[in-house]
Design a protein that fits this description.
Blueprint: H1 11-14, E1 24-28, H2 33-44, E2 48-53, H3 56-62, H4 64-69, E3 75-80, H5 86-99, E4 103-108, H6 126-142, E5 146-155, H7 179-201, E6 207-212, H8 225-242, H9 253-266, H10 269-272, E7 276-278, E8 281-282, H11 305-319
Length: 323
Amino acid sequence: MTTSFGATSTTDEVLSGRDLSGKRVLVTGVSAGLGVETARALAAHGAHVVGAARDLAKAEKATEGVRAAAANGGDFELIELDLASLASVRACADELLAKGEPFDLIIANAGVMACPLSYTADGFEMQFGTNHLGHFVFVNRLAPLLSYGGRLVNLASSGHRFSDVNIEDPNFERTQYDPWAAYGRSKTANILFAVEFDRRHRARGVRAAAVHPGGIQTELGRHIGQKGLEELVTTMNATRAAQGKPPFQFKSIPQGAATSVWAGIVADAEEVGGRYCEDCHVAGLLTGEGSDMISEGVRAYALDPERAAALWAKSEEMVGERF
């Protein structure tokens, strides 16, 4: 596995020299930010990219540059997917299954962050329901379309350090709601989903990894607001200063999307399978206390295979579907 990429690497640098002609990739959340850039980079290197988005009109406008950048046989198409509605998730998956066209890579990129307490169409807490359960059903339904050698990349976050999943109370029915705790639960779930998906599918040559894109200013932070973002950065910088580290620097969107395409296309499958990646490398375990979003590493609970299996079973129970 190459070690020549890092925190400042961009999507085009990571994919330099790669011919993705003939590859089919599915990316969720292509109406803004990382999803658009991920789709652009893949299509520009020859892949046929299927982009999923809740608001097709918004996505059509946002992805004009994706179509323009497509080269070497690359192409782009859009499908409608609302991850906060299992009816929409199942309809979209059924449409793709009916076509029967295989995928080499699925990038579960879409998500919400730190929103006020709200619920999906099916009554799930919004962040857990959208970030995890929507993708859980969507990806598992499409798993038969993943070709031998295919991969799943789940967009997670260093925010997983805020909290482990709460399998006993996933909807905050008995726990006081906190937007960041809910976000942490959902991002831990994204990692655990990759761990268990990898275990279940690696025998047929399909692997899964979770990635942290880094700190990027995108629409994901719309519920925080500029003031909230400034306060968050101030807190992080105080922590970093106490650790003797330089101030936090936001990544550009091409830098943020680089780890997704690195884990999905470039990295050795055996190295990243069932792992959590950041800055275009596999992250080590994070030791010590605290929930700093910026320091490197992954919490052990997010890679716990028993926790991953338990979450899978709970998720099946919640959505009423077994995989």
